[in-house]
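Dear colleague,

Thank you for sharing your sequence with our group. We've completed the structure prediction you requested, and as agreed, I am returning the results in plain text so they can be pasted directly into your records. Please verify that the sequence below matches your submission; if there's any discrepancy, let me know and we will rerun it promptly.
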Amino acid sequence: MERPVRTADYRPRSADLDALVRLALPVAVVQVGIMSMGVVDTIMVGRVSAMGLAAVAMGHLYFFAVAVFGMGVLFALDPVVSQAVGADDHVGIACGLQRGMVLALALSLLAMVLLLPAGSVLTALGQPGEIVPTASSYARGLIAGVFPFYGFIVLRQSLQAMGRVRVIVIVVVGANLLNALLNWVLIYGHLGAPPLGAVGSAWATSASRWFMMLALLVTGWPLLARYVRPLRPDALATAPLARLLRIGAPVGGQQWLEFGVFGAAGLLMGLIGAVALASHQVALQLAALTFMVPVGVAQATSVLVGQAVGRGDPNAARRATGAGLLVGVGFMTLTALMFLTMPGALAGAFTQDPAVIQAVALLLPIAGVFQVFDGLQVVASGALRGVGDTRIPMLVNLVGFWGVGLPVSAWLGFGMGAGPRGIWWGLAIGIGVVGTLLAFRVKRRFGRELRRLQIDDDTSAA
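Please find the predicted structure tokens below.
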């Protein structure tokens, strides 16, 4: 009989921490690089006008409200491919990657359709009439980049699961340089191009996403070739695709619930006014930028846990979880101190509007408070994803963010008259609930037997 799992079983060894950091560092660089494209858009549009900044904020929120579910669905590749890597199952890797591309195409078509009525939806939601036309044009400008956005995720998750991330870093750095150049041309109207303002940044982003997918496919081809071709007929088999979707759909739901609550908070800010919405966007960009590091740690944790499960080593999976939590929460503790001590200086890097800077400086200390719990919840989710546990984390997000966080935001912001700060305190409370519940879920799930996921009918769970 197997002995009960103890707290000491999660204590990482130096080798576990070394493996996590070696994988998490480039993955975190990739996450920050992807996020920095949006940050650069915000900064460069913010130099044009506060209204343009608010429009980008609203268009950005609408795009990710549509696209984030598909992102989460494709994160099903984390456990599927990493467990196949751990089991040295090359057929399983190929099937996972090719099925991911099938899902990416289907999800792209859905997202494109949902992006078209952006203006009507934003108007129905009561957003400021002066920013809706530009925000909807911005969202429609991102339609051309939907498929490469999803295709890049498939390639990235697959390469990460194999532990090959250097090429991803190179591609993302190149995409950031291209995005900045295209922003300079299209936003301000250089090199003979007309000045398109906020809408120009959307076209720059779409072009950069095509570059990301194609460049990653080309640079990663020596490793990817054996998994991309030949095309496997079973990659289109309905039953395995349905199983992959059952793993990924709750992740997509979790991602949508988490992003959606910040999007809903943005809508509440829009009801207050353009300055409140712009300050929300700037503060959210800063919080999200630092959040990309524990997101990278979470993805590395998911890969290491999945590989350990695939090779039948549950103790290594538990130690990888402990290492991820230690590094992710530790980093967010440091960024919390930064937000608490220098909010005004950070806000000034994004906008020159005094009213927006003052409003951001009031929100960032609240972000500092919830940083630690944000690191806890995202790494815990990554560890659970590595063993294919995706449904319970989705329910936890539903309870914490939508059952607690958003109602408290509305009550504090409007009912108690606390305005933008009240809305963000509600978010902080919701994140605290989610982080605490997911920590308990990790302890419960990793205290049981850890077995490989079964996707194909002829694959026995290891």
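Summary note from our side: Residues 217 and 224 are 8 Å apart (CA to CA).

Kind regards,
the structure core
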